[in-house]
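During the second year of the project, the team shifted from modelling isolated chains to modelling whole assemblies. The rationale, set out in the original proposal, was that interfaces cannot be judged from single-chain predictions alone. As a representative example for this report, we include one of the complexes processed in the last quarter. Its constituent sequences, exactly as entered into the pipeline, are reproduced here:
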Amino acid sequence: MKTTDILVIGGGAAGLSAAAEAASAGAKVTILESDLQLGGQLIKQTHKFFGSKDEYAGTRGYKIADILLEEIRAAGDRVEVHTNTTVTGYYREDGTITAMRGEEEYFRVQAKKVVVATGAQERLIPFPNNDLPGVYGAGAVQTLMNVYGVLPGKRVLMVGAGNIGLIVSYQLMQAGVDVAAVVEAMPKIGGYWVHAAKIRRLGVPIYLQHSIKEAYGKDVIEGATIQEVDNTCSGIGNEKRIDCDIICMAVGLSPTTELCWQAGCAMQYVPQLCGYVPKRDRTMRTSHPDLWIAGDASGIEEASAAMVEGRIAGLNAAASLGLPVKAEGMKEYWQRLDHLRAGEVGEKIRSGIGQVLVDTWEGK
Amino acid sequence: MHQRTADVIIVGGGVHGCAGAYELAKAGVKVALFEANYLSSGGSGRSAAGIRQHFGTEVNCRLAQYNVQCFTHLEEELGAELPLDYAQWGYMWVAYTDSCLDQLKKNVDLQNSLGTPSVIMTPGEVKAKWPYLRLDGIIGAAFCHQDGHINPQTMTIAYGRQAERLGATVKTHSPVERLLASGDKITGVVVNGEEWHADKVVLTAGPWSTPLAATVGVELPVSPERHNLLVTEQVEPFQCPMVLCLDDGAYFKQCPNGSFFLGRDDAGEPKTTESGNSWKFLEGVTKSVLSRIPVLSGVRVVRQWSGPYDNTPDHQAIIDWAPVEGLLINCGWSGHGLQFGPSGGRLIREMVTGQPTFVDIRRFRLARFAENDLFFEPAYI
Amino acid sequence: MRMIDEHPILEYRHGQRVKFSFDGREMEGYEGEPIAMALHANGVRIYRETPEMKRPRGFFCAIGKCSSCFMVVDGVPNVRTCVTPLTAGMNVQTQRGKGTVALEEA
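Output from the structure prediction step:
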């Protein structure tokens, strides 16, 4: 059995940030990551982040991952990292956590405090043949081409014109893949204008108020019939056949929160945050006194917010152990979060967070 | 105006409650069943779903026989929308001591005398029939090939749905807050903030029967005990029977879809209806079961859960009218209630409609505790 | 091989190339990278056949959360090939239906 001060479950943007922050306060930290390397979704991002200097504006996503990894490395043996390791359970009665390294090795962890930074998982929309090989989540397509240098296919139909759909379409073209079209069920593009403009300039048609009627192919995807849809997402004709070998799903994510349920955290369904998420206070602590939440697992948002939430969680988990933390940390980090969530663009997130942010756990 | 009355109100939507609703509705009785959560959400749906005829008392043997006959055609009888997955791959009780084997032999003799085709097997016969079982140190086993498995959730739900088709009112997410009585006569229940009236109320709420009975001054010696179970990933089924190892109480069985249930009789578990999982259970039961069926090494655990036994002092059910007139108790099945569902439903119907019961249920009376005439069933786990 | 030859931004760092077998055919991939990636690079996208309806399946999420990419690896079924690292000499097979427990001991 392993013991540690702070266990960080998930080594992506939020998890690495939490670990780095907690380690800088002197905590003994253990990161358990189910993938083969750290970095989560950050290592797949080729585009330059925007925002302020604090949010690494102008730096490409995968390089931001390198910056975080360097911070972790600088903490030396205060941070223990296990990749290819999946946490399998949170046992509420004594806070024991079970995990599997690869397929073979089972072990237990006892941690004083836990940060859950387990991110999210891809959604899928229903249509005939949506299970054929070639229907890939957007994250999967990014993993193939940006992490491992494998060509995802020759021609892609992208479903979803939110930021992920637009960014991944551009990344596909950077990798030499033809993007046949983007379909979006809503009457307007969900992502930032700058991303949409980039792919339009390169000749990719974006069909608004369109969705997939059905995919076709014998053993693998060979194409899809798209159709115009009304505001109930029902087909209203204008069908087009689009030959392709990949249908990329960028239709949203769901927070990965099984561990929070197992730990007995107070949970709430919040549509603006894309699913069930734990209630939390401003320190990102859940209703469980030893469990913090950060990143997409706390509500689907984006990488910059995930990193700041990770800092808040790591700082407060360390503080709860009596370790010395930056005096102005909370103020600085919340300023950055409020800035990221400001304006019209941040309305949905603010409304979502407002439903699960509690002032205090006293009397609850 | 909505009349909130019924001939009979049933409290608790587990298998006994739902089977009772079905039997009564079939007999033309106006039934209302209230379940706090969803049908089978209590002990019934969380059960390891082992069906056995291995008992050491005549009444339990007769009831078990009746139930096995029922299971064979139950899916069709209930017009079940989801398959009941009934399988008869057998159930084996494995003895590690002479006194244990002696008792198993007595039990099997009794079963045979009543027509149940169970047998005592030697270690060599067990080894020959199931070469993949490593039962070192056993001195013998009791086995019945007619025993097996049924899907506890789909069976309970099928009973509830058929009851509805036959005219019963079945309300889920409707916890009964308390029973209602006038003097020493039951008058109904309070549920969803409303009063429902009936001359007869049947309490089939497992361990939750105790606090509910208390609301009309009836003391039930039924208490909860948490039990963990786990299930593995599915593998191609090879008809592995249910095996109960009587040294440490570990048991395992293969479900028709190929997954394995692993469990263990553990008196150290907390006495609560609250769900909760134990990592000590996970480690203990996998070690114990793997030593008996090593070919399962490498098969992955998929899920772990818990469910409440409703225990009585002699680990046998209470099937009896309560001291409050019109209140019928059917609970306290102490971990073997699921397989008695069909007979439980029939007995509820017979007692409520004033017919003689098809078996003598005197041993299940409530007063036996006060009379110190406990019902010891030797084949208890 | 369906690898990306030149990327405008990224430089790929691969480990050692090793041999492995897929359904009896010899293939090459990068040691330590997920099996599914090596298969995809070799043009193999169908990883298993579902038990009931015999549908072909490949991967979907590629981060070990969806169970679409299960294959039999070195005799072990239901291996998440999208997060399991490739090793030299690995024996990877299309999984047809559920895994099988070998009842005869070696």
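Chain A touches chain B through eight residues (CB under 8 Å). The domain at 124-249 of chain A is CATH 3.50.50.60 (FAD/NAD(P)-binding domain).
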